[in-house]
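FIELD: query
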Amino acid sequence: MLRKRVSWFSGSVLSGGVAMYLTWLGVADKLPPWSLYAVGGVALVASISQFPVKGEDGSPRPFVSALVRGRGNVNMVAGDQSPVSRNIIGTGRSTQHITFSGSELTYSDVRQIASDVGQVEVLPAVREVASQAVVVEIESRIGWMTDKVVDRLNEQDPKPFDSFESPRFLAALTSAQRGYAETGDDELGEMLAGMVSGLATEPIRSRKEILLRQGIDVAQRLTTEHVNALATIMYITYMTLDPRFTTEGLISAYDGLLKPFYGRMPTGEIDYQYMSSVGVCHPIPLRRDVPGGIYGVLHSHNINTMYPLFTSAEMEADVFSDSGLDGQDIQKLFIPLTVNPEGVRYTPDGQSQVRIEDARFRLHPDLAKVVLSESNSRTGEPLTEWQARLRGLVQQRMLTPTQLEERIRAEKPQLAEFLDNAYRTGCFHYLLHPVGFIVAKYAIESHAPHMAQAVDDALAGTT
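FIELD: result
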């Protein structure tokens, strides 16, 4: 350190001062004396800024670095051409540790890899004999599929771009590229892109990864009508809609969810036999004997919305009067709703307050499973007195499957016609195989993204 400082003094201060004085002698008769002091002051500050000091790691560094090095923060700029995809953690005033937790691939790298693989693997024989216009269209569709997959992966955190270095993932991607390149069907393309992006985060040869790979292959062998039928089976047979719906709201919700499939369903049971042969569904021969038909299925799956909401007065008089329940029990067992949104007030801590005369009640789904179960209880235990009384009250108010059918026909005739045709052609005589669940999930996701969590809940309930 002493040698560095001696070198600084002789090289910066001494020699600089001598050079400045000799220069001044040549211009002393042309400039005022204060100019020498001004220039000398600037030179002195510059020299002091380079004075050697001891750094935190023991090595010498200029004094100015101690002033401008900041508080140990690291500023990094990441863009489309940057490989930065990691966590930067400052652990000292100058020493930085970089923990890599992302992919080294840039967006450009990913798109280029996918494009290069597609150029080689997707329809090479067709390219050799096709016109230039056809080749351009194939390449355009490959690019479309690649962008869809990359955009979906970019929405995930962390971004699994390192999958593009996996031969198994690239094989699935090229299969999806080929399927879309052959058909140009955007609905199929959206579904395939969803399955490919879902595949990227799954461990190789795990159950879900294998099902997704099979789904990518099978979806290309199904018509749009076949896929719509799988989604319809998922909606009607496996999903229960939000219990906060009124019966009228429930009918409108089904109409909205199924409307994209109106007039776009298989026209005969031979379609379902084909779907069974490719492994997406299997027949249930006794399904034709379900009481109430398809309307009975809708009724049983949404039984907790088949009765009018209870008012607070009705609950107080008929349920809570001698039940022994306190306020916390009531909040856990019932869903409080309001019939007058304008009467809802919100407190500063985010709580909502509803006037008691505007409050309505629906059974909590967990309570409904016990009270409305055909066997009275899932555990075999008898209902308590207030539970039995509540069951009787609900059954008195509940619609029958026939009444539900009448309401659907009156309020949503197109929905009724759709359900009748689907039932007549055999749609609800089949249940889904595991790969059928996968195809239905991504078909629904492309039509109704807001239903993604409900679909996942339905899938979890089947495992």
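FIELD: remark
The two ends are 71 Å apart (CA to CA).
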